[in-house]
Each structure stands twice: as structure tokens, then as C-alpha cells.
Design a protein that fits this description.
By secondary structure, this protein is an alpha/beta fold. The protein folds into 2 domains: 74 residues, no CATH class; 317 residues, 3-Layer(aba) Sandwich (Rossmann fold). It is built from 9 helices and 20 strands. The protein has a 7-stranded mixed β-sheet, sandwiched between helices. The chain binds guanosine-5'-diphosphate, magnesium ion and zinc ion (2 copies). The site of magnesium ion has 4 residues, from helix 2.
């Protein structure tokens, strides 16, 4: 595994030496200039047919290379899909987080709201800077995701991502940097990449997407698995009146089925020893909890806001975990906790609401955010837990006093 890198766009694995370069296309010292053409590999993987200067091989361990035309370039690309790699890609401290789940489980909404919160309110208080890692993400995310939800107050209809549109082929990749102060006033910068592959729907189903999802899971250092409680037999009748219930997807789409499929994919990817457990941390997140608010006790931890500081609060996290565990029995998902226990060294249960209330359909049958606006609850918990598992942020173990900043730093197992 030494030195293995994973492309945040196609999730193939390679070594630093295999990283390729792309010419800048500017005239070189000799006056020669490389021509731009469609890159067939890039087009096949991402649908991007824009003309580009040629890709070429060189020692990828170096930050730059000289093209045939004598121009020096620092544009590094993936040897498998030719996507341009993020600036700090390959730095020892970068980690990849993947978000997976069945269709309609709330992935697009969750990703949009989480990133919005991190880029605005939360990011600042955490000293966390979040940016699109490439031009595509920097353009697409605000226009297609953030503005649609927050300004137009419209939900992405899943049909919009059907095959053939430009969406659903190319992941959105965000880079998050956390400036961490260490002892003796030295500060270090921790980087994580969040790669979100907004699949067209049949995620974890058709052979093609299973293969890609398997690579996605294998590449990830931490996983957020989003599950829809409204797909669970015991929870559906409890939902608030007016809740849009997803069509029952059958055994393959119900949360227990999805969890066990993801578990199998991870065992295969990690070649876990027989009977061994997966070491990657997995946050198992139940979405749309607002639709079940009425069934929770008044003092439920799930109804509280998450703690607001830049540490992961262990006591609060445990309380949420235990509540969801109890709810799983009620929702007829009792076996899930045991499955997690037996297969994952590091796992935790979460309950979130990205929207805060049920969406409503307007006169044109378009789903819209309710009149209250987007009021997320506990949306950042799984993300913060993963960062604390990575040792990027610290963990507060006692309910009251914060742990010194660097105790959790070396927690990475
Ligand atoms: N009540 C409620 N419904 C939600 C929430 N998030 C998503 N939904 C519903 O779930 C549907 C599917 O969400 P979406 O993010 O498109 O799912 P995806 O297919 O996994 O990307 C949406 O159209 C909403 O009706 C939430 O936080 N609360
Ligand atoms: Mg989606
Ligand atoms: Zn790639
Ligand atoms: Zn050149």
C-alpha cells in the first residue's frame, strides 16, 4: 500500500511517480507551441471534450516537467482519466472522504447543505477553509447546487440527472484545509478532499456503477453512508403527515440491504482477513429526520443542535449513536448495529436533517424548500467525527472540559 494515491475523479490507484503532466500550450523558448485537441481519455471519463494541450509522461514525483516543446508545466494529471489533480494532491496529509447511499436517500441535498454550511457559518468557527478543487466544481457547485437550493429554493429532481446530461459523470471535488496550531506555536495544515460522485440514480446497482462505487469506496479514507429511514418498514408509518415517501425499493434498496452491500464491497476492496474487521471509519447517517421529529422524545439528543466548537464532542456523539441504535429496533432495522459491530472497527450512527422540514410541491409540481427555508440540524456531525478519526480535529472526551489541542492529533490508527 506504500505511497498509493487515488484519483479523486476516477478513483483509480497509482503511485506518485506515475502522475502525468499536461503542457501549458504556451509558446516555448524555441517558438514551438503545442496544439490543443480533445483528450480522448478525459472525454471518455468525464465527458469533457474541450481542446487541451497534450498530456505526457514524466517523473510525477516532481512538481513540474518539461514538455517536448521545451515548455515547463506544473499541471499534473491522473494517469488513468487525465483529470487535472488538485494543487496539493499527493501531500502526505490529504485524505479522501466519500459519500454513498441508495438513490433518493438524500445525498444531493445533504452534500449541498453540508458544503454550504462549511463554506459559511461553520467553516469560520472551525478555521476550516473549503474550496472547489477544480474549475468544474467551482462553477458547477454554486450554480447548479447551492443557488438552486438556497436562491431558487428548488430541489434537484432526480430525473434531471438521468443518463445523457452532463451531470452524474464527473465528481465534484472540494478541498478543505484546516489550520491546526501545534505546540511551540508551530502550525500545520491538514487537507482533506471531499469527492462527491452525484450518480444518476442506479447507484450500487448496475454493474457499471457498482464497479465505480467499489473503486470509490476503496479509495476513500473515510465513508459517509447515507440511509433513508423512510425506506424502513417500521419508520414509514411514523412519518409526519405530508412527508413525500420514497417508493419502496425492495430488499436491495432498503437501508439494511445497502449497508450489507457496502460492507461487502469494502471487504473486497480492503482484502480483509477472514473474520477481520474493516479499519476505515464509516459514518452511518440516517437522513430526513425532520420527518420523524414527532416520534422523538422532547429531550432527544437528535432534536438538539450540535455543539458549535471546533472539536468533536464524544459525549454528544455517543448520545446520538445510542438513540439511533434504539430507533433502529423500532424501525425494524435491528440487525444493522450488529452488522456494523462485527465488520467495522470504527463506526458510528448519526441522525441528521439537511432541510429541517419536508419539502413542498408548488403549483407546477416542482419540489421546493418549505417556507421556513433551509434549516439543517446536525448535518456536520458525521463529517466532524471523520475528521476526529483522522486526527485532524481533536476530540473532547469529558462532557465539560476541552481536551488540549494536540491529544487527539495522533489518534489515527
Ligand atoms: N423531509 C426531508 N426530506 C428530504 C431531506 N433531504 C432530502 N429529502 C427528500 O428526499 C428526496 C431525495 O433527495 P436527493 O438529495 O435528491 O437524493 P439522492 O438521490 O440520494 O441524491 C428529495 O427530493 C426530498 O424529497 C431532508 O432533510 N428532509
Ligand atoms: Mg442525487
Ligand atoms: Zn483519474
Ligand atoms: Zn508542449
Amino acid at each position: 500500500m506504500n505511497g498509493a494515491l487515488y484519483c479523486p475523479y476516477c478513483y483509480h490507484r497509482f503511485t506518485a511517480r506515475q502522475i502525468m503532466f499536461r503542457c501549458t500550450g504556451r509558446p516555448g523558448p524555441t517558438g514551438r507551441r503545442c496544439e490543443s485537441r480533445t483528450d480522448p481519455l478525459l472525454a471518455a471519463h468525464t465527458g469533457d471534450t474541450a481542446p487541451r494541450p497534450p498530456a505526457f509522461e514524466a517523473d510525477g514525483r516532481k512538481g513540474s516537467a518539461r514538455c517536448e516543446c521545451q515548455v515547463e508545466t506544473t499541471v499534473r494529471i491522473c494517469p488513468f482519466c487525465h483529470s487535472q489533480l488538485p494543487t496539493h494532491f499527493g501531500a502526505a496529509d490529504s485524505r479522501l472522504i466519500a459519500l454513498v447511499g441508495a438513490k433518493e436517500s438524500g445525498k444531493t441535498v445533504f452534500m449541498t447543505v453540508l458544503l454550504h454550511e462549511l463554506r459559511n457559518r461553520l467553516g469560520e468557527s472551525f478555521g476550516l477553509a473549503v474550496m472547489g478543487a477544480d474549475d468544474y466544481t467551482r462553477n458547477q457547485f454554486p450554480a447548479d447546487y447551492e443557488d438552486r437550493l438556497y436562491t431558487e429554493r428548488q430541489l434537484h429532481e432526480s430525473t434531471r440527472t438521468a443518463a445523457g446530461t452532463r451531470e452524474g459523470r464527473r465528481p465534484l471535488v472540494f478541498s478543505m484545509t484546516l489550520n491546526r496550531r501545534r505546540a511551540f506555536n508551530r502550525s500545520t495544515i491538514d487537507r482533506s478532499l471531499f469527492s462527491f460522485f452525484d450518480t444518476a440514480g442506479e447507484d450500487l446497482r448496475s454493474a457499471d456503477s457498482v464497479e465505480r462505487n467499489a473503486r470509490y469506496l476503496a479509495a476513500a479514507d473515510g465513508i459517509i453512508l447515507l440511509l433513508d429511514p423512510l425506506q424502513m418498514r417500521g419508520a414509514r408509518p411514523l412519518a409526519e403527515p405530508g412527508t413525500p415517501l420514497p417508493e419502496p425499493g425492495g430488499a436491495r434498496d432498503d437501508p439494511a440491504g445497502v449497508l450489507s452491500r457496502v460492507t461487502d464491497l469494502l471487504h473486497d476492496a480492503g482484502r480483509t482477513r477472514r473474520g477481520g474487521r474493516i479499519r476505515k471509519p464509516i459514518a452511518v447517517v440516517f437522513s430526513k429526520l425532520d420527518a420523524l421529529d414527532g416520534t422523538l422524545p422532547e429531550d432527544s439528543a437528535l432534536l438538539r443542535d450540535s455543539p458549535r466548537d471546533a472539536v468533536y464532542d464524544e459525549a454528544d456523539g455517543r448520545a446520538v449513536h445510542e438513540e439511533i441504535r434504539a430507533l433502529l429496533d423500532k424501525w425494524q432495522g435491528g440487525g444493522m448495529d450488529l452488522l456494523l459491530e462485527q465488520n467495522f472497527e470504527r463506526h458510528r450512527l448519526f441522525g441528521v436533517s439537511a432541510l429541517g422540514s419536508n419539502p413542498v410541491r408548488d403549483e407546477n409540481d416542482v419540489q421546493r424548500v418549505s417556507e421556513y427555508g433551509v434549516l439543517p440540524r446536525r448535518i456536520q456531525d458525521p463529517f466532524l467525527w471523520l475528521l476526529s478519526e483522522f486526527g485532524t480535529i481533536s476530540r473532547r472526551d469529558s462532557p465539560r472540559r476541552a481536551a488540549p489541542d494536540n491529544t487527539a492529533a495522533k489518534r489515527r490508527l
